[in-house]
Specification:
Blueprint (H helix, E strand, L loop, with lengths): L1 E7 L3 H12 L5 E3 L26 H14 L3 E3 L3 E5 L10 E5 L3 E10 L3 E3 L5 H5 L5 E2 L2 H4 L7 E5 L3 H11 L4 E6 L8 H8 L4 E5 L1 E7 L6 E6 L7 E6 L2 E4 L3 E3 L24 E4 L2 E11 L11 H21 L1
Parallel strand pairs: 1-2, 1-6, 2-3, 6-18, 8-15, 9-10, 9-15, 10-11
Antiparallel strand pairs: 4-5, 5-6, 7-16, 12-13, 13-14, 17-18
Helix pairs in contact: 1-2, 1-7, 5-6
This protein binds NADPH dihydro-nicotinamide-adenine-dinucleotide phosphate.
Length: 322
């Protein structure tokens, strides 16, 4: 199938790109990917997206965006992109090729990559059991539900410190569970954490399991595992926040598009334009990135939506120039 504009990803960035691209008469096709609605649907309620004064459940919000894109003619394909072959030059009418489930080939003049990022989890079983019931990977999204309660944040980087500080503004007490004897975060972030009386940093602790009746009520930790003074400790908590990093979903594009050391797609100068993997100064024609896959900093739905709009406007301009 040959299309003008192909969008990969069904989070706020992908759907917003679809709304703008379809209103620009690009007749976009959107490949929905493995998690319909994107990362946002792992949270319980969205209260910080403008336009929903009473909050909204993430499935409703993402369905609203999808229906809005559909109304203007976006075509949706359920499936996962398994392979791409992006053209280096489109001067001889070459197209970008994208395969869904290895079999269905789409050829596109422009591709908007909005594949998001996935929060890293520890991999313990109880994390899955309590996901959405006390386990979260976004303090900005879910912290409000833990006002005046006790929570734990796992991780010792800048994100963990930022989230612990944010949560300390809402919660009664915040534990930080840090596997090393020191924090990895920048000095200023460390000082904010260490000087905050509501935050207790548990250095050299790892989480064994979460406990609770239907929701998180506690965590079993191990102190200095394997050392002579190894000890098990239980803490009572109402919320367990992961802040051990994110992984942008960009591995599929690594041969074609410039990424930073963490795998985030490099965009420059307030644009969504991608650059070539082999030469990060050369534009990758017709390739645009929006949302968390190109954003190591903000990771907010509203920011992703904004960049989706930008990507569609830039794709439209590019297609018209062909
Ligand atoms: P980082 O990779 O910097 O930190 C991850 C933290 O999680 C580390 O403390 C790491 O421990 C810990 N961790 C990783 N895996 C596990 C595990 N399995 N069990 C327990 N702990 C684990 O990620 P961040 O998201 O914090 O930051 C990403 C980038 O974004 C960084 O460059 C950061 O500086 C930047 N950033 C900047 C901000 C700012 O300037 N305001 C705010 C937020 C992020 P260990 O140290 O032992 O590896």
């Amino acid at each position: 199938m040959k299309v003008k504009c192909l969008i990969i990803g069904s989070g706020p960035a992908g759907y917003t790109a679809a709304i703008y691209a379809s209103r620009a008469n690009l007749a976009p096709v959107l490949i929905e990917g493995p998690q319909l609605g994107g990362q946002l649907t792992t949270t319980t309620e969205v209260e910080n997206f403008p336009g929903y004064p009473d909050g909204v459940d993430p499935f409703t919000m993402m369905d609203d965006m999808r229906r809005q894109a559909e109304r203007f003619g976006t075509q949706f394909v359920s499936g996962i992109v398994t392979k791409v072959e992006f053209a280096n030059s489109q001067s001889q009418g070459q197209c970008h090729k994208v395969w869904v489930e290895d079999t269905d080939l789409y050829e596109a003049d422009a591709v908007i990559i909005a594949t998001g990022a996935s929060a890293r989890y520890l991999g313990i079983e109880s994390e899955r059991t309590y996901r959405g019931r006390g386990v979260s990977a976004c303090a900005t999204c879910d912290g409000f539900f833990y006002r005046k309660k006790t929570v734990a944040v796992v991780g010792g980087g800048d994100t963990a410190c930022e989230e612990a500080n944010y949560l300390a503004g809402l919660c009664e007490k915040v534990y930080m569970i840090v596997r090393k004897p020191y924090l990895r975060a920048s000095e200023i972030m460390q000082q904010r954490v260490l000087n905050n009386p509501k935050i207790e940093v548990l250095f050299e602790h790892n989480t064994l399991q979460l406990t609770g009746e239907g929701k998180v009520q506690g965590a079993d930790l191990v102190y200095r595992k394997g050392e002579p003074d190894e000890a098990i400790r239980h803490i009572d908590i109402d919320g367990f926040f992961l802040a051990i990093g994110h992984h942008p979903n960009t591995d599929l594009f690594k041969d074609y598009i410039a990424r930073d050391a963490e795998g985030y797609i490099i965009v420059k100068d307030n644009s969504t334009q991608c650059y070539q993997a082999s030469n990060a100064n050369a534009k990758a024609n017709g390739l645009f990135a929006a949302g968390d896959c190109a954003d190591p900093h903000y990771r907010q739905a509203i920011v992703a939506a904004g960049s989706g709009a930008k990507a569609a406007i830039e794709a439209d301009k590019y297609i018209k120039s062909l």
